[in-house]
Amino acid sequence: MFTHHQYSYLKHSSCITETQTNAQVYLIETYGTRNYTQFDYSDPNQQIYFLFGRETTGLPQAFAQARAEQCLRIPQSEHIRSLNLSNAAAIVLYEALRQQSFLSLT
Q: Per UniProt, what is one GO molecular function of this protein (predicted)?
């Protein structure tokens, strides 16, 4: 099951890390050092959060730098600044659904 929240709701990172102690939290950023496909999202019972920033500025820099090991990237051409936010979200969520054998889809 996937749920969407506005960043304004998640401004304090502790709202995820303290309430969802077993959750996997990933930040999707152009400067992430690890590819989003290198992770296991296959457990449908695992709470997974993907945080996406604005198309123009990304996530707040201090927030992302404090979680550098959680920053993932989508490979893209060096000739573009970034992907459209909705496209980036679709790419990452589709990979998670694919790994879960599209359990929530018919």
A: methyltransferase activity
